[in-house]
Amino acid sequence: MKSRALQAQRTKEKIYETSINLFKSKGFDNVTIQDIAKSANISVGLFYNYYKSKNDILYQRFLIADEIFNKFIKNGIKGDTIKEKIKNYMLFYIDFVMDHPYDFIKILYNNNNTLFIKEGRAMQTLLDPIIEEGFKNEELTVDMKVDEVNEYLYQAMRGLIFHWCLHNGDFDLHQRAEKYLDLLIRPL
Length: 188
Hints:
It is a single chain. By secondary structure, this protein is mainly alpha-helical. It is built from ten helices and no strands. The chain has helices at 3-26, 33-40, 44-50, 54-74, 82-98, 102-108, 122-125, 128-136, 146-166, 173-185. Helix 5 (82-98) packs antiparallel against helix 10 (173-185). It is elongated, with a radius of gyration of 19 Å. It starts with a helix and ends with a helix.
C-alpha cells in the first residue's frame, strides 16, 4: 500500500475510533461533527472527505457485522434441524451484540437508527436460504413467506435487545434470547 493510501486509511480509522469513543461518552445525539473533528484533531472538511454524516460511521460498523456473518455462514451453522439452525443463527446475532460495549449497543438500538431495516444486508439475507430449506423440506409449515419469517425473528430479537437496553443490561440477554427463541421458533 502506498504511503498516501495508508495515511488515508489511518485517518479514516482515527475518525471512526474517535467518533465511537465520543458516542460512548456523550451519547450519539449529543455529538456533533465539529466535536468529532476537534477530538480527532482534523478539520470538519476532512471529516466529510471520509464520511457523509455521523450515521455513516454507524453504517461502517454494520458493514463489519455483515462480514462477520458471512464468515459465520461459511463455517456452517450447528444444528440437526432447520429450527436448531435458525435458533443458533439468531443466538449468534445476540452474542455478536453482546460482544460490544453496552454503551455502544445503546447508541445503535434507538428508534432513529434505520440501518437495521436497510434492504439487502447480509446479516438478514444470509438467514433466508436456511428458512427456504425449512419450507422446502416441510420442517417449517407456517403460512408465511421467507422474508416474513426473517423479519419476525429479527423484530423479536431487536425488541429484546432494546428492552435489555431500557433495563440497563440487568438480565442475561443470551439466556433470555434462548428462551424466547424456543417460543418463537416452535410454531414455525
